[in-house]
Amino acid sequence: MSGPNIAVPISNTEFDLFVVSRPYFFHRDLIVATYEKTGEIAGFVHCGFGPEDPLKFCRYLSHDLGTIAMLCAPHDPILEDQLIQAGIGHLKSLGSKVIYGGGRHPLNPFYWSIYGGSEFSGFLESQPATLEAFRRNGFKESASSVLFEFDLAKSEPKHLKNIMLKRESRLQILEDENPEENWSALAVEAFHPLVVQILDKAEKAVIARSCLWPMSVYGRREGVSRIGLIDVIVDDEYRRKGYGRLLIAESIKCASGLSYDILCVQTDSTNLAAIKLYEQSGFVQTETARLFRLGD
After folding, report:
1. Which of 113, 125, 107 is nearest to 285 (CA)?
2. Which of 7, 25, 164, 228 is most buried, by CB atoms within 10 Å?
3. Measuring CA to CA, how many Å separate 80 from each of 47, 50, 135, 211, 281?
4. Are the beta carbons of 226 and 218 closer than 8 angstroms?
5. What does the domain layout of the chain look like in residue ranges?
6. Which residues contact 93 (CB under 8 A, 6 or more apart)?
7. Do 12-145 and 150-287 have matching folds?
8. Alpha-carbon distance 171 to 184, whole Å?
């Protein structure tokens, strides 16, 4: 696999750090295929589960919803089918009532930091063999995400209303600050994330908030450094007043100040308001990720 949204090459140490050493990793869920004569690894399928409650401490996983988090194999339909069927059988044996192909919050326990861009939310369209393998095995598309990138060689977008809103608010940058959701924090805490906050003038209430995490293992072959934008939130009371646009502009400015080349973000393909916001802010669509669900 290759592309700007996949960490390549990935070392054994990094695979251990980002996947195997996670507190929710179980060796039983990693199914490996080997060549009978040589014993060499032919490919693997990795199954996983999401937390019972993504907002709280991740002490227990829910086995009702299972996910085939990763399929890694050469383009060999027979091998791909064998691995996927092994994953399905394994998840059913553990009590999964619904099975997904690809992760999506909160069913995104693995590969966030090495596959899929700024978040882990399905399989990339740039890997058509993988998508076809899931369709061939009875999976149907259940959701999709749009991936965007902003070239930080450009300046942050200028809007007249941003100047007015900045007079009525305060900007705050928090270093080594995790996302508010515990499940997201588990995925990015090793990368020393930053939080960009817009506070009210009295600095008592958070109007809008986003999180930036360095995507340090992406873009090696291109020689391009990337940083991801996640958890973009605007308080309900302040929506449709321009604070979302201000938050994006300040997030771009912060990422640029850290000397990164590209700012990455993604959103659900049905979230037309977010898509419009990113496009108007100068982001360019680069990829689509598709989530699959096993048909009844």
Report:
1. 125
2. 228
3. 14, 24, 11, 36, 40
4. yes
5. 12-145, 150-287
6. none
7. yes
8. 23
Span 105-128, average pLDDT: 90
pLDDT at 190: 84
What architecture is the 150-287 domain classified under in CATH? 3-Layer(aba) Sandwich (3.40)
pLDDT digits (tens, 9 = 90+) for 232-274: 999 999 998 999 999 999 999 999 999 999 999 999 999 999 9
Contact present, 42 and 35 (Cβ < 8 Å)? yes
- Identify the CA nearest to 134 among candidates 89, 97, 101: 101
Separation of alpha carbons 22 and 109, rounded Å = 9
Spatial contact of 80 and 102, defined as CB atoms under 8 Å apart? no
DSSP-derived pairing of the beta strands 262-268 and 139-151: antiparallel
What would the pLDDT profile of 36-63 be if each residue is shown by its tens digit? 999 999 999 999 998 888 877 777 888 9
Q: What is the CATH number of domain 12-145?
A: 3.40.630
* The token pair that represents 191 in the structure block: 């990368």
At residue 273, the 3 state secondary structure works out as helix
Identify the H or E element spanning 129.
helix 128-136
Token reading at 151: 């070239």
pLDDT tens column, 153-207: 988 777 878 888 988 899 999 998 888 888 888 888 888 999 999 999 888 899 9
pTM of the model: 0.92
Residue with tokens 């339909």: 77
CA distance 96 to 139: 15
